[in-house]
Amino acid sequence: MTVSTHVLSAVSGRPAAGVPVELARREDAGWAALASAATDPGGRIASLAAGDLLTGVYRLTFEIEGHVAGETFYPQVVIVFRITDPGAHYHVPLLLSPYSYSTYRGS
């Protein structure tokens, strides 16, 4: 199972390089951090987590302050998603602008 992401600026049409991203898993006592990395010059993290992840609820936290052209209303974006097939690839893209963001399950 792998988790990847791609961060793009809707304002500039360019990848958002250097964005710190953390992957965590929800557990009884709260969130357990599993991995962290920063986006590459193409705005990607090809494999934030690979290996034996369990089914459950996960969270990607993007620290986007300073990585969007101009002032940003959202200094941090948190995306919570569910893994139902531990053998599958999960790609979670993030499209940013100063006052909005969108995401979807990619391929």
Helical element count? 0
Question: Between the first and last Cα atoms, what is the distance in angstroms?
Answer: 13 Å
CATH class: Mainly Beta
Compute the number of structural domains. 1
Largest sheet: 4 strands, mixed
Look at the structure and name the CATH superfamily: Transthyretin/hydroxyisourate hydrolase domain
Average pLDDT: 91
Rg measurement, Å: 13 Å
CATH topology-level name? Immunoglobulin-like
Q: If classified by CATH, what would the architecture be?
A: Sandwich
The helical percent reads under 10%
Strand content: over 45%
* Inertia-based shape: globular
Q: Structural class, please? A: mainly beta
The number of distinct β-strands equals 8
Strand order of the largest sheet: 4-1-7-8
Give an overview of the whole structure.
By secondary structure, this protein is mainly beta. It has a single domain (2-103), classed as Transthyretin/hydroxyisourate hydrolase domain (Immunoglobulin-like), CATH 2.60.40. It is built from no helices and 8 strands. It has strands at residues 2-9, 20-27, 30-38, 44-50, 56-63, 76-83, 89-97, 100-103. The strands form 2 sheets. The protein has a 4-stranded mixed β-sheet, with no helix packed on it. Strands 3-2-5-6 form a 4-stranded antiparallel β-sheet, with no helix packed on it. The chain is globular.
